[in-house]
Amino acid sequence: MVSWKLFSIAGIDIKLHWTTLLLLGLFLVLSVNSFLILLLLFISITFHELSHSLVAKGNGVKISQIILLPIGGMAVMKNAVIDPKVEFKMAIAGPLFNFAVCGLILIAAYLSGSSNLIYSMGYWNERLAGDILQDIGPMMVSSLFWLNFLLGAFNLFFPALPLDGGRVLRALLAMVMDYVKATRIATVISMFLTILLFLVSLVSMNLILLLISIFIFFGARSEMEFAVSHRLLRKIPVSNLMRKNFLMVDENTPLDALVADMIASRSLVAFSKEGKNITAVSIYKIGEVPKQRWGRMKFKDLAVVIKPVSPGTQVVTALTRMGKEGFEALPVVDNYHEVVGCLYKRDIDTILELLKVTKLS
Questions:
Q1: Domains contained in the chain, CATH given
Q2: Verdict on whether the full-model pTM lies above 0.70
């Protein structure tokens, strides 16, 4: 996932995805007014996600970064499964922040005696399509009010995963039943609501609603798959699945020699260790380079630093990392930081499929 770090708050990196930057640039070219409104939206989304993250950190859930996407924000969590009470607190934190912003704007409007500081929603929508630069102050205040109101209300009161409302629903269900069963019920409800939202978007020809419904659909499916995977893999340590016949090479190894070594050792990934850093190159990355350049390029030209896991790490935790970071394999290190094995995603997928079949039969 290509993104750029903007800044950090409380140890949490705020990153902008390249598609979001493209969207902002497009709106800036088309309309300064639209760009300003969109900018306010992403500022609101940032603090919405930051509210989730700060509550998470306060309850022992590790948040590494927040990525701003065209369809919203995404907080990247390191924890595999969250306690239902903690998930409930995290889920409502974002919408509560949005409603708090709305409340402060209302108080400020009342105290200042500016009855026209906040437009009605109908007039606000009309002004969005017109020339808003003539009354930019009230328009920005109104936009901040309505964007936060809509962001908080839709997230909280539309009970579909992975939105906040869906997480609140799952958290409440998980307090009285099994987590996987709670996720399954929440997912079924999410799918039903998503289909309705999709149909509404088609009838109204609303592209934004269409994209949101698609995002929710795949997000809900992902939540269900993760819950089932966690249940099946939660007791399996990395040491049970790691391969000990991994490939370690020098960082100056030419790509043509590297490919030969990978074929000989039947390894999809090669590792190199320089000091405390472990770097990796996959055969898929090499495949992106024209063959005539293999003799001139070296391992280090394609290598990326990769954070290892320990043999005692739960496989589901490693699988979550692979999905978020886009790695097909992770090096396994001992207490002395020596590489002792390699964990492949395809091995996890295989054991997961076997477990699913045997559990169902």
A1: 3-233 (no CATH), 238-360 (3.10.580.10)
A2: no
